[in-house]
## 1
Amino acid sequence: MSGFLAVDSGGSGLRVVVGAAGAEGRGPLGRRASREPVRT
């Protein structure tokens, strides 16, 4: 499975963006992860 993983640790917390090839419309996982920030 080809895709990309982007991790951005900014001042407001940790933001993780995960995208897979053809993830658009293939499930809420990819879009949900890129939309919601993950705070540690």
## 2
Amino acid sequence: SCQVQVPHNNGGTAIDDGMAYEVTANCGFKNAAVPGGGDLPQIVGMNLYPNPTNEKATVEFTLTEANNTTVYLYNSMGMRIATLFDGMAVSDHRYELEFDGSSQSVGMYYVILQSGASIHEVKKMILYR
């Protein structure tokens, strides 16, 4: 199972109420404080379609500056299912990544784009039959 703890939250639910968060998780991710804005490469856009999907999906992304980038697919149990991209992403180039979910179980999946040392964007994907 996956657990996410939000420090200084007194057991309440997580609310997007500021520009920086520290997330501690036991889902195989590195602990990191992710500031909003600032020095990190910016994502011009990350799209996932069709979503929900019954088999195949496309992930599109563009960065404003070149950086080592990975795009992973995780299942709802926090297990990495696929690496969709792993390499140097050049700036202002639109990447289109295809995912074939025909051999995967139905359910919720997470597409996670990392550029440099930080997680920059997470998209939920629903796979159904």
